[in-house]
Design goal:
The complex is a heterotrimer of chains A (765), B (282) and C (160). By secondary structure, chain A is of the alpha+beta class. In chain A, 26% of the residues lie in helices and 28% in strands. Chain A has an eight-stranded mixed sheet with strand order 3-8-1-17-14-15-16-27. The N terminus of chain B is likely disordered. Chain B contains eleven helices and twelve strands. The chains are: A alpha+beta (765), B alpha+beta (282), C alpha+beta (160). The complex binds flavin-adenine dinucleotide and FE2/S2 (inorganic) cluster (2 copies).
Chain lengths: 765, 282, 160
């Protein structure tokens, strides 16, 4: 299904025309006068002490400006970063904790020289024992990654949630969540099922690698950055360098894909340090290989014990979740919280009791990946729901429907009610599935996550000039999701002006009002509400001005395009404004803000802003000799509340679903021993056209129940949820083989096919 | 102990320096004849031939230093496919795309063209050469497996100036030898079948001639594993395939698939190829 | 080693002195300012750097500059001559066949080359060609729709 865009001249078209002609500027393309280039030396050891670094030969080379190492961090106010918990040094201080950890950074006149200088740096390592998996890290005699307590604080959480920092050696964080009496619920169950599910390590593989340019002027530093969260980054850089935030300026040109990988602080402080030491602007563009060594999605193991009553009603669930956090915290705390909280899925329970732990290992740090927590939780939950239905001899569709939450019902005590009709979307999914064909299997799943983040806020400016032209300014970045045109559309709708009158201001922390970052699908919803409020404010100013000129009150008049209706008469605004202000005219500057208030009685510490469903269905055919699975149909649906642009919403769902599809089928970052085995673009397989199901469709519902303008809500992460489970459920439907580990490589499928004869291990009372 | 003492210093770790932007400067020789290329090779230290350059650039971006690069592009006669008596000649500079489009090859070795239309990706097929593929000869590369099944021989000019014909599985070791092209014996009809559906875990090639069949198994071994198969119709295909799988040598370690899986798949994929061959399916 | 290379890029001749080791993507981006040629994998995998050399799609990141001596090169900047979008660009716009846009120049050039060879490609051909380049954002449906739209447009043009 395709939705063509016909508004020739709106923001969407202007931005896309640039992309289609090669004119758009990404951070990757930014060049400054006298700019130097950086290159990084990385650790070949998974775990080692740095005994010494000798960079003298590198420094003696022509064209090399400086070398930054851990010794340079002494001059920083706080050399660590991380979300909430901060344990990652800007550059390795005296220890490296994974293959790829950065030990030295060279600035030189060009990348070639910088690279040659790297070869001249001698690092003396004392290798230490490494731990490559959570189970190894949790052993009694396991080597410990950190000797000191972790700095920082946990993200906000609320009633029913609890956390511990450093609860055990190599455990960074433990989050627990629950309500009801789980022991009682499970004791009273007619049938009890315990299953363990695993999910693989995934790389973001955004095409534009991590890239930053930093420049100092006196004590002020400015960035051109590919970071998704300019104001979060600004705060981190300010803290690390001990600067007022006003001395840190972040500009965000177009971003060539992020999917969470470019959320939160990464190597930006290092680039600033390199630039300061070099006394010149420095560009650090990682290669894609290096990007792959920078961040991954949390691999996880989830053990679920679920009790069901005689009628097939879900009673209680206990979850023990182990997330492999890798070497450093990054956003691990948030991922633990979101996995633990979301483990119940879209169903009604008497009791939930979940524990999610972040275990440190000597692997690439894990962090934010589109839909984090939700993807891990929905995989395990929706797979187990299906397995339970089948083991009880229930129809998996009817089983789900019996337990689905209704609109308005809270997902968890005290939280915002479900803001959509889960059953309606599920019905639409079922109706969209192809007719049954012999030899093929079908499976469905309903993923769900909260969206919009915790207690988030956004601010906006809407400036309307004398000619009725609009400039919308927020901190939401253009990462391909279509936010600029959505923001412009929200503003022009309030003002009653044509869409093509609005432009979206480029993002620059020195000019644009802040928000919490372009992630958790909150942009059009939260910042969108701020834009709506700002547009209303501007509209009020316009009306007040016109009223004063017409000698009436604002209530007597309305805006029609750029004309004011006063009774039967229409007055053009532009001459009115020009007459009064003269000169170059005037701008009505509307301000708007939205803040989701903190609410300690809710599990997340604030009401969840919206609920994001993912109805997914797959039809598969399995080659029982090789274990190869062919997905013939993949149907994915979500709810946009209100779709500002249906084509864009469909594109978001399809794009996420394609990622989720690949993660289910073949995508995985593998280690061999302590070395990443396929961390190169060539070896790491991402989906291509030929990999996609022939029949791949997305649909988007419009419940109108979202809190955003006109009932809209975020949709960017939806397509990630539930796909893996739907495919595994279809494989079981087709063959009886039960898959509990992603990706479903032919070998794993074959093993599951072989295991079919084994006795059913489900404990049924 | 002794072995440790004389162990050479480790080369720069590939992950320690992940930069694809760096290619060390080098001298370039654009040879106009094979002899000129060979002489340039003999005259320079640390020289490499380059054809499409895809593999060489990749190696150089990950740190390979080359003193002189000898470009073969301008040498006439090395690109293209021709019939020389009973033998088909595939010039070393013939690109994958040339092969995928060749009528002549299609006429003499049906099957080849179709297989080659799916090798690598289009941009690589446009530039990457059959010869470069044979010389690089990575375990998952297709040209060595296809050529070995067809019993092809490579025409090589050694650095000293002498020419020799070598079985394709022997190519690639001597970086100073220049490959002119490959000869495939077509005096009797031959077709080529392949199952690449599990590539790069495993691929199996099968060349079928009236007098016999030869299978090659790639990806799982450093060099394609070659097996001659009888044309005995009384033997069950599954049994033959199972026998081949059971007697295949030890597989290489890989994180994509276990050796046990690869071995089992040899039996499955080969059985399917034998069935296709018997039923004269494409 | 320095050498002279003559190329026609987007219709303009350039006599360039380059290092033997320089790649086409370096020269296009850094010398000629044609930053529409994106470099992502730098390993012939993704196709973000796809450009046309004498009409053939090629990875600029993995092509030595000396190899394209005396060739005609087209980058995305060379398509919309005089500001008029080509049919392929227009189709990408109509179908929203991109999100972040980092793959877009390469995709558009790939499709341009495909339709120049075969204005009416069948599905298998489209699959084979389009599978050469990676888009991490869209899931490809919109790109495939754009290819169909552009080829349908060519068909109508041919019929007229
Ligand atoms: C993304 C990707 C996917 C790929 N997929 C596949 C696949 O599915 N199947 C497959 O088979 N391959 C695959 N390849 C490999 C590809 O086919 C080879 O890279 C290509 O064929 C090499 O040819 P070239 O002309 O570019 O070699 P070059 O890089 O020019 O040369 C390669 C090596 O051979 C030497 N050499 C070249 N020509 C000669 C000659 N005539 N005489 C002596 N030495 C010579 C060079 O010195 C060098 O060492 C893939 C590569 C990539 C990057
Ligand atoms: S950047 Fe050249 S193919 Fe990926
Ligand atoms: S649009 Fe982002 S990679 Fe294609």
């Amino acid at each position: 299904m395709t939705h063509s865009h016909t508004q020739e001249s709106d923001t969407y078209f202007r931005a896309f025309r640039k992309k289609a002609t090669g004119q758009s500027v990404y951070t990757f393309d930014v060049v400054l006068p006298f700019m130097l280039h950086g290159k990084l030396l990385r650790s070949p050891h998974a775990h080692a002490r740095i005994k010494s670094i000798d960079a003298s030969k590198a420094l003696a080379m022509d064209g090399v400006s400086c070398v930054v190492t851990g010794a340079d961090l002494a001059e920083l106010a706080d050399p660590y970063y991380g979300v909430g918990l901060r344990d990652q040094p800007v550059i390795a201080i005296d220890r490296v904790r994974y293959v790829g950890d950065v030990v030295a950074a060279v600035c030189a006149v060009d990348e070639n020289t910088a690279y040659r200088a790297l070869q001249q740096i001698v690092v003396d390592y004392e290798p230490l024992l490494s731990v490559m998996t959570p189970s190894a890290a949790l052993m009694d005699d396991a080597p410990v990654l950190f000797d000191t307590p972790t700095r920082g604080v946990s993200p906000v959480i609320g009633a029913g949630s609890a956390y511990k920092i450093d609860p055990a050696p190599n455990v960074l964080y433990e989050y627990t969540f629950g309500y009801g009496d789980v022991d009682r619920a499970l004791d009273s169950a007619h049938a009890l099922f315990t299953d363990t599910f695993e999910i693989g390590r995934i790389n973001h593989f955004h095409l534009e690698p991590y890239v930053n340019v930093a420049r100092w002027t006196g004590s002020q530093v400015e960035f051109w950055s590919c970071n998704q969260d300019p104001f979060v980054l600004r705060a981190d850089v300010a803290r690390i360098f001990g600067l007022p935030v006003t001395d840190v300026r972040i500009r965000t040109p177009l971003i060539g894909g992020g999917f969470g990988g470019k959320s939160y602080c990464k190597m930006e402080p290092l680039v600033a340090l390199m630039s300061r030491k070099a006394g010149a602007p420095v560009r650090l563009a990682l290669s894609m290989d290096e990007s792959m060594l920078t961040l991954v999605k949390h691999p996880a193991s989830l053990t679920l014990t679920t009790g069901v009553d005689k009628q097939g009603l879900l009673l209680g669930r206990r979850a023990d979740i182990t997330l492999d956090g890798g070497a450093y915290s990054d956003a691990s705390t948030l991922v633990a919280i979101k996995t633990g909280f979301r483990i119940g899925g879209p169903y009604r329970w008497q009791a939930i009791d979940s524990r999610a732990r972040i275990v440190r290992t000597n692997t690439i740090p894990s962090g934010s990946f589109r839909g984090f927590g939700g993807t891990q939780a929905s995989w395990a939950s929706e797979r187990q729901i299906d397995m339970i239905a089948r083991r009880l001899g229930h129809d998996p569709v009817a089983f789900r429907k019996r337990n689905l939450l209704k609109a308005g019902e809270p997902f968890a005590p005290n939280d915002r009610g479900i803001d959509l009709d889960l059953a309606a979307g599920f019905d639409r999914l079922i109706a969209s599935m192809p007719a049954r064909t012999k030899g093929r299997g079908q499976g469905v799943a309903i993923g769900i996550k909260d969206a919009g983040g915790t207690g988030n806020h956004g601010q906006a400016l809407v400036r309307v000039n004398q000619s009725g032209q609009v400039c919308v300014s927020t901190a939401t970045v253009d990462i391909g999701q279509g936010a600029p045109s959505a923001m412009c559309r929200i503003a022009t709708e309030v003002l009653g002006l044509p869409r093509n009158t609005a432009v979206y201001a480029s993002v620059d922390t020195e000019h644009n009002p802040p928000d919490n970052g372009t992630h958790v699908s909150c942009a059009t919803m939260i910042t969108g509400l701020a834009v709506e409020a700002a547009a209303r404010d501007a509209l009020q100013q316009v009306l007040a001005f016109a009223a004063s000129q017409l000698g009436c009150t604002a209530d007597d008049i309305t805006l029609e395009g750029w004309l004011v209706r006063h009774g039967g008469a229409l007055h053009p605004l532009e001459p009115m404004i020009r007459k009064y202000f003269g000169g170059i005219g005037w701008e009505f500057i509307g301000r708007g803000a939205f803040k989701e208030p903190y609410a300690p009685a809710t599990p997340m510490g604030a009401e969840n802003v919206s609920w994001m469903p993912c109805w997914s269905g797959a039809e598969v055919e399995v080659d029982e000799e090789t274990g190869q699975v062919r997905v013939l149909s993949l149907v994915v649906g979500s709810d946009a509340g209100r779709a500002l642009d249906m084509g864009t919403c469909i594109g978001q769902v399809e794009g996420a679903a394609a990622q989720a599809f690949a993660q289910a089928m073949f995508e995985e970052m593998r280690y061999r021993g302590d070395q990443p085995d396929n961390a190169t673009p060539l070896a790491y397989r991402v989906p291509r056209v030929a990999d996609m199901p022939q029949d791949f469709r997305a649909f988007v519902m419009e419940s109108r129940l979202g809190v955003g303008p006109g009932g809209l809500k975020g949709i960017g992460e939806a397509g990630m949820l539930g796909i893996a489970a739907a495919i595994a459920n279809a494989i079981e439907d087709a063959t009886g083989a039960s898959l509990t580990k992603t990706p479903f490589t032919p070998e794993r499928v074959l093993a599951a096919l072989d295991a079919r004869q084994a006795p059913d291990i489900a404990a049924s009372k | 102990m002794l072995a440790q003492a004389i162990h050479p210093p480790a080369p720069p770790h590939p992950i320690a320096m992940r930069s694809r932007k760096h290619i060390s400067p080098f001298n370039l020789v654009r040879a106009r004849t094979v002899d000129e290329a060979g002489q340039a090779m003999a005259a320079s230290r640390n020289a490499r031939y380059v054809a499409g350059g895809i593999d060489l650039i990749d190696l150089m971006k990950s740190g390979l230093e080359v003193g002189t690069i000898i470009s073969l592009d301008a040498i006439p006669g090395l690109r293209g496919i021709s019939l020389e008596g009973d033998r088909l000649f595939i010039g070393a500079l013939t690109t994958h795309a040339d092969i995928a489009e060749s009528e002549l090859l299609h006429r003499h070795v049906p099957g080849f063209r179709e297989i080659w239309a799916t090798v690598a990706n289009l941009r690589i097929r446009m530039v990457g050469t059959f010869g470069g593929n044979l010389i690089s000869a990575l375990p998952h590369y297709d040209a060595p497996a296809a050529c070995a099944a067809l019993g092809a021989v490579g025409r090589v000019r050694k650095a000293a100036g002498e020419y020799m014909d070598a079985p394709v599985t022997a190519l690639g070791g001597d970086k100073s030898a220049l490959l002119e092209g490959t000869f495939i014996d077509v005096h009797e009809p031959v077709r080529l079948l392949a199952d690449r559906s599990l590539h790069p875990v495993l691929s199996v090639y099968l060349a079928v001639r009236p007098t016999g069949m030869r299978a090659t198994i790639a990806c799982a071994f450093a060099r394609p594993h070659v097996i001659d198969l009888p044309l005995d119709a009384s033997l069950a295909q599954a049994d033959v395939a199972a026998e081949v799988a059971a007697s295949a040598p030890a597989m290489m370690e890989s994180s994509i698939a276990s050796a046990a899986y690869q071995r089992r798949m040899i039996a499955v994929l080969l059985k399917r190829l034998l069935k296709r061959a018997a039923e004269r399916q494409p | 080693m320095r050498l002279n290379v003559n190329v026609v890029v987007n219709g303009r001749s350039h006599a360039l002195e380059v290092g033997a080791h320089e790649t086409l993507s370096d020269v296009l981006r850094e010398r000629l300012g044609l930053t529409g040629c994106k470099v992502a994998c730098d390993q012939s995998v993704c196709g973000a750097c796809t450009i046309l050399v004498d009409g053939d799609p090629v990875s600029a990141c993995s092509t030595f500059m000396f190899k394209v001596d005396d060739s005609k090169i087209t980058t995305v900047e060379g398509l919309a001559a005089g500001g008029v979008l080509t049919r392929v660009q227009e189709a990408f716009l109509q179908d929203g066949a991109f999100q972040c846009g980092f793959c877009t120049s390469g995709m558009i050039l790939l499709v341009t080359a495909l339709l120049a060879r075969d204005p009416n490609p069948d599905d298998a051909t489209v699959q084979q060609w389009l599978s050469s380049n990676i888009c991490r954002c869209t899931g490809y449906n919109s790109i495939l729709a754009a290819v169909r739209r552009a080829s349908a447009g060519l068909r109508t043009e041919a019929a007229a």
